[in-house]
Amino acid sequence: MKHTSHPTSQTSDWYEHAFDLARGIAAYTQSPLIEGVAKVIAKHPEAHIANAFNHKQVACKVWARDTLLSVAGSSYARIAILGGWYGILGAMLLEDARFNVAAVDSFDIDPDVETVARTLNYAFPEKFRAVTADMYAIDYTTLGADLVINTSCEHIADLRSWLDRIPAGTRVLLQSNDYFSEPTHINCVASVEEFTKQAALSTIEFAGALPTKRYTRFMLIGTV
Ligand SMILES: C[S@@+](CC[C@H](N)C(=O)[O-])C[C@H]1O[C@@H](n2cnc3c(N)ncnc32)[C@H](O)[C@@H]1O
């Protein structure tokens, strides 16, 4: 996603209020992720953080995190997140005391999001890595992730040819949706059955749907 808008004097008040509010919520909740959101508002006013952290996006990622915990457990040596955008899911996993995650690599093809993701994850400098890369061009064998997450499947043209690049037996968590009217969604699916068929995983540990007001999100957890 390209960032073209810049704050004007008319919007600078909004940024100040948003920054103050985020810092207040961070102080109240003691959440490094919310403190990271405040830092993003201050350092990267061009980033679409309000869109990435809106209540529907958060609900879908809480669904991913909590289902992952119950289906596949809490311990991961390296989690790779593809299409990781501003690194919100990475921060959610790293700050959650129920999980034991040694490293999160967040890859995105958009060079504008790398520094924003790093700012958002400022609290995890040893564990969090943001990298600009095309998910089709990554050497997944060398990467050695024990969990590969892609909650942006609706944004990539050929899901199966991407999955073919990941070593057989690797656990994956995938999300897509039926939000066909959004122009950047080039590969939506109409149902969890269609998503299951498209991904053609070797094993499936979870397949489900989460309805929201405008669209339904689908999720699969299993192995390639
Ligand atoms: C709008 S965002 C995330 C949407 C998703 N529903 C979510 O919340 O996780 C989609 C991201 O996928 C990234 N992306 C699209 N194609 C990619 C590719 N081939 N490799 C890596 N990242 C890609 C975009 O740059 C963008 O940041």
Short description:
The chain is α/β, with parallel strands linked by helices and 224 residues long. It has helices at residues 9-29, 32-43, 49-52, 55-72, 88-95, 114-120, 140-143, 159-163, 192-199, and strands at residues 75-76, 79-82, 100-101, 104-108, 128-132, 147-150, 171-177, 203-211, 216-223.
CATH superfamily of the largest domain: Vaccinia Virus protein VP39
CATH fold name of the largest domain: Rossmann fold
Largest sheet descriptor = 7 strands, mixed
Kindly report the spatial arrangement of strands forming the biggest sheet. 5-4-2-6-7-9-8
Strand element count: 9
CATH architecture of the largest domain: 3-Layer(aba) Sandwich
Number of helices: 9
The mean pLDDT is 95
Secondary structure class reads: alpha/beta
Radius of gyration: 17 Å
**How much strand content do the residues show?**
15-25%
Q: How far is the first residue's CA from the last residue's CA? A: 28 Å
Number of domains: 2
Q: What order do the helices and strands follow?
A: HHHHEEHEEHEHEHEHEE
CATH class of the largest domain: Alpha Beta
Which percent bin holds the helix content? 25-40%
Bound molecules: S-adenosylmethionine
As residue ranges, the low-confidence spans are none
- How would you describe the shape? globular
